[in-house]
Amino acid sequence: MSSKEARLLKLNIRPLWYATPVNTDGTPDHCLLEQLLRYAIAVADCPPGRFIPYIQLHEFEALLFSDVSILTRIASGWLSAHVALAAICAAVESPEQINGLPETKPAAHLERALSHPKYRKRTHAPSAAQKIGLAKIEAKCAFFAGGLAHIRK
């Protein structure tokens, strides 16, 4: 193990997650967490350009709510779920905010609404994300868009 790796291992930022200030919606301040990760990398003398911190706000499936009409056209039996999924989107400012309890996480919403055929993350999510496209996801999900913008620099 190199001295850089040893110094990085000594930095225990996990307690910082639990002590991180929260936003008005009760979620951890991810911008602060990303700054803490950048600091940990700098303290460990790692080249900062080799590590780009990004913490997905909630589950990946939240990003699929960026375009419910495309999502519900992935499988022919899903069209009837459009109204229910659109209502979930209408209740929040951004798909990234869809979460809460285990039964209200994005995947749980999709598993309940998309049942014929049953929604399967490994099968349906890649196809849905590709058909929705990054442009639409970025337009609806500002935090995700910010992460991609940082990578593109």
Automatic annotation (TrEMBL):
InterPro entries: DUF4276. It comes from the Bacteria. This is DUF4276 family protein. It comes from Xylella taiwanensis.
